[in-house]
Specification:
membrane; disordered C terminus; mainly alpha; transmembrane; 4 helices; transmembrane helix; two-stranded antiparallel sheet
Length: 167
């Protein structure tokens, strides 16, 4: 066999392999970028909805403590229900995207603490619960930041039921 043909064949094969590897690497990078963007969007929606729920529930309790008319309180109550549903949905999306049950527990714990606003007997107790919520949200936000700093984690489940990695 002619050495020129062998060298040309090896060059052609090397070109094909390098194109395939570059395409695979680019696909992985694009996928990781999309996952990172999705996480960021879902985390933002989650925190936005939790803060809205906190505000709406706080307003609801304040209107009860100030003994406002029932018709006015009903509108505020409906807003709190909508915000709660939105927060639950966003927490579910964050869990689906990360698979991190600790993050889901932290976010759900903050949501449940917001729900405890309704049992507040006075403004001081309401303020104390509000501080608990903000501390819980800060802790959950720190967990979410760690997820954003881990670009190698992928969405999905392996056969063992754990979140897979692309290492």
């Amino acid at each position: 066999m002619d050495p020129t043909v062998v060298v040309a064949g090896m060059g052609f094969a090397t070109s094909l392999v390098s194109v395939w590897l570059a395409g695979r690497s680019q696909h992985r990078t694009d996928r990781e970028g999309r996952i990172l963007e999705a996480r960021l969007r879902v985390y933002a929606e989650c925190y936005d909805s939790l803060f809205d729920y906190s505000r709406a529930t706080y307003d609801r309790v304040k209107s009860r403590l100030e003994q406002r008319p029932e018709s006015e309180r009903d509108l505020i109550r409906q807003e709190a229900y909508r915000c709660n549903a939105r927060a639950r949905s966003a927490i579910g999306q964050a869990y689906i995207l990360t698979g991190d049950s600790d993050l889901e527990k932290a976010l759900s714990g903050a949501r449940r603490t917001i729900g405890r606003f309704n049992g507040a007997a006075d403004g001081d107790q309401l303020k104390q619960l509000q501080d608990e919520v903000y501390e819980g949200l800060k802790a959950a936000l720190d967990m979410a930041r760690r997820h954003l700093a881990e670009p190698k984690r992928t969405v999905g489940r392996s056969f063992g039921g754990r979140v897979g990695t692309s290492r």
